[in-house]
Input
Amino acid sequence: MKYLVGISLAIALFACTGGKTLEGDSYYDTGQYDKALESYNKYLSLYPRNIKTLYNRARTYQKLDNDIMARQDLQKVLKLDPDHLQGRITLGEMEFQAGNYEKAFYEFDKAVSSHKQSSIAFAYRAKANQKLGKAKEALNDYSVALRLDAGNGMAYFYRATLYLSQKKKAAACSDFERAKELGISSADAAIKKYCK
Output
């Protein structure tokens, strides 16, 4: 009997606590970011070290244009799990968008180091290398990203921009076409501009 009561209590506790993070996710998915934030805050008041919820709250802060709080949550995520791929990529993206390309490279390089099979990590590191003027390293990273996942349209698109800067129009246009096939909307405009 004690065993059944213990299981029932554990299930009830999970339902009460797990529900808040699921509730927050539901609000996030429907664009109700203020409600998502409120839900994540309640959950994190009970479980401040929950990595998934910290990460989701960071993304919510981003949607609410609060990069300071987003960055703080991402740093908490990475302190708890230094190999958290999404945390590294998201923090790197934030640095990249802020024009901090060296810091972005650092985050993407850490992601590659701990996730050597991640096409996305290689593609982002390539993008940072490209911005830093390291064309050879960027080209290598884009190629690795595409070997790992031939469906990575972002890698095709940005490799095409690198080819353009190297005056390799045919290679660039081929990659733009592939990126377009893979659903990268900006590839169509690039094709019209550079490949006709």
